[in-house]
Amino acid sequence: MSRYIAVIDQGTTSTRCILFDHAGRAGAMTQMEHRQFYPRPGWVEHDPLEIWQNVQTVVSKALQEAKTETGDIAALAVTNQRETLVAWDQSTGNPIYPAIVWQDTRSVEICDQLSLEGGRDRFRVRTGLPIATYFSGPKLQWLLENIEGARIKAERGELLCGTIDSWLVWNLTGGVNGGVHVTDATNASRTLLMNIETLAWDDDLLAAMNVPPAALPAIHSSSEIYGLATGVLAGVPVAGILGDQQAALFGQTGFDRGEAKNTYGTGCFLLLNTGSNPVHSRHGLITTVAYQLGDTPPVFALEGSIAYAGALVQWLRDNLGLIKTAAEVEDLANSVEDNGGIYIVPAFSGLFAPYWRSDARGIIIGLTPYADKGHFARAALEATAYQTRDIVDAMRQETGMDLDLLKVDGGMVVNETLMQFLSDILGIPIARPIVTETTALGAAYAAGLAVGFWADIGELRGLWRKDKEWQPRMARETRDYLYSGWNKAVKHTFGWLDQV
Ligand SMILES: Nc1ncnc2c1ncn2[C@@H]1O[C@H](COP(=O)(O)OP(=O)(O)O)[C@@H](O)[C@H]1O
Ligand SMILES: O=P(O)(O)OC[C@H](O)CO
């Protein structure tokens, strides 16, 4: 039997390749960063060819590191930054424009226009999403309207468009020599173009954004054989595709209704499995496909997306110079007993869930001469916990379900001070697994199930291993008092921009 499932984890800042063995342990891991381009305020781009090159490099290096060969790889999975759009020429394989990244806000006027009739929630029942620049459909409309020749090519079926998974799987399966143009339902559910009930592109949505169907990939499940790889992994079945946040839920074995995870990286994304029916949010959350295995019915999730979590720590480091490394924030925060009355609300690009206020901007509030840099560090960490509380409360209001445990992963979860405070502010236990590369692990599980490397999700559940758990130990009155301060601070960020 082959020893590994290979995973390509293509994220916003870097690309990793990880080989997982049958016990779900990483046998090799390689990583490369790619460039971020900010050509104008609010624009964020990546070079799709650089990303494809990095993918090939990290895969080759991972095989070398594990001293293994193609025959040892049972299947290949792709997990990816979501919503980011790539458009390329079918005959040459060349992108016609840089990738337009999920953080890019250039489609703001298109979104305003789409909202004129029916408001921001015009497509919510059909797609699970509010109209926002975050999603791929308005980005594609912008590209077709602004890049010369794009629309004509798209109408003739000569332009292939899709999220990063589509771009990579097309290249991995041969590119101009027969690459398959596919995506999975989790990625398609982030476009504003897919109907969340039928899991198919929706004619009315395509018409609203003037998108020719010929340009779009075929929507498949998250776990099936899409094609065979070429190149260094020649002949290996490409058998799993999941958006990265859904992959993390799968990797945390959040298979059942009521199970949740939060991934603490640059931003943070809390997903709650809501089972076989999409729950349409009235509390500022997003409805998304969590996973679909082969021809079984899809499973849905509610998502709370937060734009600034670890990025606020980076800001303390890079812009204020308060710390030299992200890890130093913990000692600095522990140099004081509490936040000294200070709150930082990192609404640097407005507030995402559950507020969706693009007129908000960041604040530091509650300053007195007593405040020192330790309080700043503490307030920065606390902001991540309070933002999580906002989402957890919205989830409770939405579903009536009380979370009894939150599984966490991502770069910030090494910070034990934050983990304890999170448990205190939420009033529930926080559990960190031994394998914190849960995004890649979840994609490995999807591909492994498709090729019989693992038998079923019951077997996968048995692979989850706890590293550490934090229990709430703060008095209820203290928790309520601290959180009420956060709520006041958030209100002060609203309406800072006069016009959005
Ligand atoms: N010890 C720490 N305490 C708090 N934040 C940290 C710590 N170590 C790393 N981070 C933050 O975690 C983030 C990186 O996490 P990662 O999961 O690699 O992010 P991404 O996948 O979004 O690139 C950075 O924003 C960094 O500031
Ligand atoms: O690549 P990450 O880990 O920053 O995740 C980005 C999300 O998928 C955006 O929706």
UniProtKB/TrEMBL annotation:
Residues that hold glycerol according to the record: R82, E83, Y134, D244, Q245
Domain Carbohydrate kinase FGGY C-terminal: 261-450
Residues that, per the record, bind ADP: T12, R16, T266, G310, G411, N415
Top-level class of the enzyme under EC nomenclature: transferase
Annotated sn-glycerol 3-phosphate binding sites: T12, R82, E83, Y134, D244
Molecular function via GO: ATP binding; glycerol kinase activity
Listed PROSITE patterns: FGGY_KINASES_1 (PS00933), FGGY_KINASES_2 (PS00445)
SUPFAM superfamilies membership: Actin-like ATPase domain
Pathway terms, separated by semicolons: Polyol metabolism; glycerol degradation via glycerol kinase pathway; sn-glycerol 3-phosphate from glycerol: step 1/1
EC code(s) of this entry: 2.7.1.30
Protein keywords: ATP-binding, Glycerol metabolism, Kinase, Nucleotide-binding, Transferase
Pfam annotation, one family: FGGY_N
Taxonomic superkingdom: Bacteria
Gene Ontology CC terms, in alphabetical order: cytosol
Annotated function: Key enzyme in the regulation of glycerol uptake and metabolism. Catalyzes the phosphorylation of glycerol to yield sn-glycerol 3-phosphate.
Similarity annotation: Belongs to the FGGY kinase family.
Identification of the protein by name: Glycerol kinase
Origin species: Methylocaldum marinum
Protein's gene: glpK
